[in-house]
Amino acid sequence: MYVDDGAWASKLALKDRAQGTANHLVAVIKAANIDAELPESLSETARQFSALDHTMKTTRQNVMKLSLVLRQVQDANFSVLDNLRATDQAHESLRIPPPPPPPTSSSPHRE
């Protein structure tokens, strides 16, 4: 009976060692996968930063173009306002005062 118990204990110990080895192997495989994916994620991050740099340059150029267009629109707006003022001034200067009222017949005339 003790022999069977010893064999049973050896089988349990062997099973525990096998399970521990399997767990260790799974951990090593996971670590290897993480290590294998790490350079890929680093290169993907580098690609994203490279694209970000290009996007930032393009955005800056677009902002500069928009600023130029905004200045041109402001200049055109000021020009329109100046022309409106000049038109108002010209209109005022061209106004002919109404003629004086005609003399009334009741007013005495000197002859």
From TrEMBL:
Family designation: Belongs to the BORCS7 family.
Location relative to the cell: Lysosome membrane
Biased composition (Pro residues): 96-105
Region called Disordered, residue ranges: 89-111
UniProt keyword Membrane, yes or no: yes
Keywords on record: Lysosome, Membrane
Signal peptide start and end residues: none
Protein name: BLOC-1-related complex subunit 7
InterPro entries assigned: BORCS7
